[in-house]
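Q: Give me the 3D complex with succinic acid.
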Amino acid sequence: MDSVVTPPVPALDKPLMHYGKRTLERIAPGTSQPDYRLLDVSPLTPHIGAEIEGVDLSLPISEELADEIRQALLEWKVLFFRDQHDFDPQSQLALAGLWGEPEPNPFFPKGDTVGVSRLAKDAMAIGTENIWHSDHSFMAAPALGSVLRAVEVPSAGGDTMWADMAAAYDNLTETMKDRIENLTAEHDWVPSWGALMTESQITAHRANLPAVEHPVVVRHPRTGRKLLYVNEPFTTRIVGLTDPESRELLNELVLQARIPEYQVRFRWQPGSVAIWDNIATQHYAISDYFPQRRVMERIAIAGAPLS
Ligand code: SIN
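A: Here is the predicted complex, encoded as structure tokens.
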């Protein structure tokens, strides 16, 4: 009999992403499971992302429905609604309003309705969101959530992915959790958004948007759950570490969002709507459809300083 040949294991000094068992808790252990009377919830993974059926978001949202949507968002972190063909910018503002106050992105083109940004991507505008990130983490009060509506989608591709940052935190080693527990990190838009701007545009925006600091491990503002809060484009350094130490630690931490078990992937259709918890998740817009077009409308939801 032929002997079994074992393929060589790549010789990394220190594997950045471990394999094996993952801890995937949808809600914080000890929290009671919500009950839904009005929503029909179809999970896309066991812990992040659910499609919601039986709701027409173009109609007025009752208090009971609003409560269930808020509960489901805390439970699933990103909710998807399909076939919302009458969902207009006013419905989008109303859905965002269930979670907080709408907040425009300082760099996105404005849509026709106050607070709604229109993101049109075609061959002239190669993707700028195809990197794992949390919206507005470069602000002193990062966005609490966002609502995205598909206006025009390519025939294939253009999906968005979200990663559960509670799972990213839960699966760190105890040594790493101890190491980062009291660290803070600087977040800044200049290395990413600034790369698309002239010097004078950067100077003009800088006056309103200085670099800010947030804890590396934040508590979710509504559930108190611990979350890993660093992301690749906006987190620039860990405060108090030397540059090489900071780079090494950040490299390891930002990679956690790339672990497939923490993620959900959504295929858009015209009329699809998503609302996400922007503190509990990061997202990645897949840029694979050029030269076709993809047009989305987005509203961010204002947050508060994190602790
Ligand atoms: C965003 O990064 O906020 C936009 C996501 C997308 O276009 O899928």
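A quick observation: The chain has six helices and 16 strands.
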